[in-house]
Amino acid sequence: MIRVVSRYPLMTVRVLCVCLGNICRSPIAEGILRRQAVECGLELEIDSAGTGDWHVGDRPDPRAIRAGEACGCQMTMVACQIRSSDFEEFDWILAMDHSNLQNLYRWPESKPEKVHLIRSFDLSASSTEVPDPYYGTYADFEEVVDMLESACRGFLRHIAAQPPEDY
Ligand code: 4NP
Which atom, in ligand 1's list, is nearest to the CA of 21? Predict the structure, then answer.
């Protein structure tokens, strides 16, 4: 666990985790980031969304609920699709893979400077992507959890060191 205390407690940083369907990776990322932020005393607003609309209104995939709950996350979210206004409302938009990243760059009213690969904050990661586990097994979801635990820790370390002018 990292022990950082926000140097700017009056600022709420807003973070949106994004994948394709918003039923597997980004809800797990949302849950882990929320849990880690509480653990290290950072006040963040955290949400997630998909670039696609096929699963809007759905609960996370049952394997994502099981894997997220197994690592201490609340998995009560409901899927939604990203909206152009999200680029205004969120400070950080964290994509799971390069395809998500390209979709976000091309989105109407995108703000590319806010869009990052979540794994780029894990300096020890062997890849910059969180692979899509949808057609995989439960073990693939467990791997996603491991990747996101490291990536979210790296992200929280990164923003804890950001000066306030950046927001
Ligand atoms: P996610 O996974 O992007 O991590 O939520 C997927 C969920 C659904 C589909 C693809 C990926 N789908 O094709 O319906």
Answer: 5
